[in-house]
Specification:
Chain A: This is Phosphonate uptake transporter. The complex is a heterotrimer. By secondary structure, chain A is an all-alpha fold. Chain A has helices at 17-37, 42-59, 67-98, 106-121, 124-135, 139-163, 167-175, 180-214, 222-231, 235-263. Classes of the chains: A mainly alpha, B mainly alpha, C alpha/beta.
């Protein structure tokens, strides 16, 4: 054979060697400086291991003795999730219309988008802590929080769906001289209703998950029960609560998945 | 005849209509039950708009005096999310490997893998954070570990699914070459799941950035610590500064992750 | 030389796919195995390197009993058998060179495989073979950028990199257009001669089988019912190989029993 090539190297992902080694160096520097500057208390970490042993020792077996508290907390979470889902799904309809480019005038469109972006940017726990300060401890703050959370998700997807609708029926209705509201009811709603119900069921599931969490900062439900158990070092009760939360999430995930499969 | 049919036209058959009314009634009943029994002080509810307005008026204008502290806490939040994501990615690889039906060594490891995934995924980051604050004490370590524990389930599940969906033909070919099991994984499986690996890691980093903004509220480090402090001292103008900073962080995170996704994939 | 004696393969409780099959491939010859779909051609090939576990019977390759090999020995044994596949079975996201070198995975260290630092003699051999089939300039291309014919060339080279004692080809041209298919068959025959390598090819196209092989084996429903020179494959013989459906065969056997 003519050539006797006996070397071959895989071409690197970044062809420019300066850029490549620069990137490696930057990553190395980042890792070193981050670990050096993060306020990590190594002694405390080492102590943590024995503490972990104590906590897990205290958590087993899980205690269901105060099951009344547990059931109350769980039912409250369920109510929060249901009411927030209904409120959120209903409220997200007008907001979605405001945020749909093909329906709303530009100024209203920007307003609608802004509402959605703000609702999406904040983790529900942050929203919850603000509502707790504004309207006091308890499930009402939780409901408001999850309404905001639902709007961020449902209104966004619904607005996208509205933007994708077939414009034909809308034009036909306008041509027939129908007023704005009738146009919505007859030409737009039929095209988005199914999606909205599916989103609602999905949102009920995610609200149930989230309602367990917002309680930790005082917005009612089983999260509050859990935070209290942790605060009082009742680790066996905390484990029981966690097990109930996990079980409920798994069941609700399965149920909501099954329902959505049926209506889709 | 024609006439009668036209007059009788209805959107749904009676049975369908009955079913629909049934669902509506059921929903209404559930909502009424929830509304009737939920532990809400209604006077507070009617008062809520005033309270909200009042709180909002105390938040403006945002107070930037501690902006340097806020920014450094923001940077700490980014680092926390990044390091935790990186470590979770590494730890998720073996979990995905044993949780995928086509690579797991045996039934026992398969169930172990699935158990790890389910328990990691069903417990929220904040609940993990509560646990690790109790173990390691308040601070970023608890936050990093909490984010790692939650992320392993997410990453492991998606990676495991990617492994299950690979094309088995190259695997067969390399087996026929006499390659060892590890080399088959290296040459036939790893290249096939690489794109999913990067996509999933970037997605989780974006999510973790959001989650790490609240860790501080349970004492697990990051910007949440400053937020909690400002709320506790009723320094509402600083609260609004922190909230603006968080929005900026989340938006920046989305920009960076969509850039990386385009660049790498 | 490859020697198969009384090979049986049965999936589950059903009828065996291979029924007490004997086959001998003595030296450097190209053997084509023909037969309708479901005759057991593919299973036969995969039993030889035990991608499919034989139910009973013996397989000897140059004196080694493949059926009795343990897991580790089997890996060493498989290096001695090259295999080419219908859908090429390349790793799409790896370069052509990596695909070619993956034929050496049984030989090289894990570190060499991981870091892609292949031994010099392997790289030289890879370039020689790739040049021989005209794909050397693709060494750094990703496998999924190549056309079907080029991909099958990579598949053939990967098998040859093993320095095998026999080459198995499972419908190597079934995914290719007629012209490319002809080229690949020519390549297989010529390479077999050059490297003094016996080749067993499963093939659907009888004309190609006749043109490119030294010997033709006809299978029908798990048995070899024809084994002769290509010229001996008469219309009648072909009719016997391809006519009828397994279902009828089963009934006939039932009647005979």
């Amino acid at each position: 054979m003519s050539t006797a090539r006996d070397t071959w190297r895989k071409q690197p992902f970044i062809a420019n060697p300066v850029l490549r080694y620069g990137l490696y160096a930057a990553i190395a520097v980042y890792i070193v400086t981050t670990f050096a500057t993060l306020p990590i208390d190594w002694d405390r970490m080492v102590q943590g291991l024995s503490r972990a042993g104590r906590i897990f020792g205290g958590a087993f077996p899980p205690s269901f003795q105060r099951s009344e508290l547990l059931i109350d907390g769980f039912m409250e979470s369920l109510k929060i999730a249901i009411l927030a889902t209904v409120g959120g799904v209903l409220l997200s309809i007008p907001i979605a219309f405001m945020a749909a480019r093909n329906i709303a005038p530009l100024s209203i469109y920007y307003f609608g988008r802004a509402v959605i972006i703000i609702a999406r940017s904040f983790h529900p726990v942050i929203v919850a802590i603000i509502f707790v300060k504004a309207v006091g401890f308890g499930p009402f703050a939780g409901i408001l929080t999850l309404i905001v959370y639902s709007i961020g998700f449902v209104a966004k997807l619904l607005a996208e769906k509205i933007e994708e609708i077939d414009p034909g029926p809308v034009e036909a209705m306008r041509a027939a001289g129908a007023p704005f509201l009738s146009t919505l009811v007859y030409a737009v709603f039929p095209q988005i209703m199914q999606r909205q119900i599916g989103l609602g069921i999905y949102q009920l599931d995610s609200n149930l998950r989230a309602s367990a969490v917002v309680g930790i900062v005082g917005a009612g439900g089983i999260g509050a029960t859990l935070a209290n158990a942790f605060g009082r070092y009742d680790y066996d009760f905390a484990l029981a609560i966690t097990m109930v939360i996990v079980g409920a999430i798994l069941i609700s995930e399965a149920v909501s998945g099954a329902i959505r499969k049926r209506i889709a | 005849m024609e006439q009668v049919q036209l007059q009788d036209w209805a959107r749904y058959t009676p049975a369908q209509r009955f079913q629909r009314y049934g669902y509506f009634a059921l929903t209404a009943l559930v909502v009424a039950w929830a509304l009737g029994s939920v532990n809400i002080i209604w006077a507070w509810v009617w008062d809520a708009p005033t309270q909200m307005g009042d709180l909002f008026s105390r938040m403006v204008p945002p107070d930037p005096t501690h902006l340097d502290q806020i920014l450094s806490a923001l940077w700490e939040t980014v680092n926390l999310a990044t390091i935790a994501t990186a470590m979770a990615v590494v730890l998720a690889l073996p979990v995905a490997y044993i949780a995928a039906q086509n690579t797991t060594p045996n039934a026992l490891t398969l169930w172990l893998g699935r158990f790890i995934l389910v328990s990691s995924r069903s417990v929220n980051t904040i609940i993990w954070a509560l646990l690790f604050v109790a173990i390691f004490g308040p601070g970023v370590v608890a936050g990093i570990v909490a984010i790692m524990f939650r992320s392993i389930g997410f990453l492991g599940k998606l990676l495991g699914e990617a492994i299950e969906e690979i094309d088995p033909k190259p695997v067969e070919a390399l087996k026929a070459c006499g390659a060892s099991h590890f080399k088959v994984v290296l040459y036939a499986i790893v290249p096939q799941v690489m794109p999913t690996f990067f996509a999933v890691a970037i997605l989780r980093w974006d999510i973790n950035l959001r989650e790490s903004t609240v860790l501080g509220l349970v004492g697990a480090g990051g910007i949440g610590v400053i937020l909690q402090g400002a709320i506790d001292t009723f320094n509402w103008q600083e609260v609004s500064t922190v909230l603006l900073a968080i929005i900026a962080l989340v938006v920046a995170g989305e920009v960076v992750s969509s850039y990386l996704r385009r660049k790498i994939l | 030389m490859l020697k198969i004696t009384s090979l049986v393969k049965r999936y589950g409780a059903g009828d065996p796919v291979l029924k007490d099959l004997d086959l001998e491939v003595p030296g450097e010859e190209v053997v084509s195995v023909i037969g309708s779909s479901g005759a057991g051609k593919s299973t036969l090939l995969r039993c030889i390197n035990r991608l499919v576990e034989p139910t009973s019977g013996k397989i000897f390759l140059n004196g080694t009993d493949f059926t009795s090999l343990g897991k580790r020995e089997l890996r060493v044994g498989r290096r001695r058998i090259g295999m080419v596949f219908q859908s090429f079975n390349l790793v799409d996201r790896l370069t052509v060179m990596e695909n070619v070198q993956s034929g050496r995975l049984g030989y090289i260290s894990t570190w060499a495989a991981l870091s892609r630092r292949y031994p010099k003699e392997d790289i030289r051999r890879a370039y020689e073979l790739m040049e021989r089939v005209g794909i050397a300039h693709y060494a750094n291309k990703r496998a999924d950028e190549l056309s079907g014919g080029e991909r099958q060339r990579v598949g053939v080279i990967r098998a040859l990199m093993q320095q095998p004692e026999i080459l198995l080809a499972d419908e190597p041209t079934a995914s290719l257009d007629p012209k490319t298919s002809e080229q690949i068959m020519t390549l297989l025959r010529d390479l077999a001669r050059e490297l003094k390598l016996p080749v067993i090819i499963n093939i659907h196209n009888v004309n190609e089988a006749k043109e490119f092989s030294d010997r033709i084996v006809g299978m029908r429903y798990g048995r070899i019912i024809f084994d002769d020179l290509p010229d001996a494959l008469t219309k009648d013989a072909m009719h016997e190989i391809y006519a009828g459906v397994p279902h009828e065969d089963r009934q006939m056997e039932g009647a005979a029993a």
